[in-house]
Specification:
- With about 100 residues, the protein is mainly α.
- It has one domain.
- About 85% of the residues lie in helices and about 0% in strands.
- It is built from three helices and no strands.
- Helix 1 packs antiparallel against helix 2.
- About 10% of the residues are buried.
- The mean pLDDT is about 85.
Length: about 100
């Protein structure tokens, strides 16, 4: 696998896992925050809700786009001659 494609896949898996964790544990985090902050913490709820909304709106699409980028890099990366290969190896590989 092409090194750049491998990095894209690793980042995309990480972002998708992080997005899933924020989706699953959002109610529990709200519960813990409400117990710690008390009922008069409306500003804190607003900031927390904004952060979660931003995270969920960006993590999934960016992770999916990185998977697509990895596919494109892998397809296009296989067509470029590698510097350590000779021209004969390149012709044999394409034949």
């Amino acid at each position: 696998m092409h090194p750049a494609a491998k990095r894209c896949v690793q980042w995309s898996v990480g972002l998708l896992v992080l997005g899933t964790l924020t989706l699953v544990f959002r109610p529990e985090i709200y519960t813990v925050f409400s117990r710690l902050a008390g009922p008069e913490s409306e500003i804190g709820y607003t900031l927390l809700n904004t952060a979660f909304t931003f995270a969920q709106a960006t993590l999934f699409p960016v992770g999916s786009a990185l998977i697509g980028a990895a596919v494109v890099i892998q397809v296009l990366g296989g067509q470029v001659r590698r510097p350590w290969e000779s021209a004969d190896q390149d012709r044999n590989r394409n034949a």
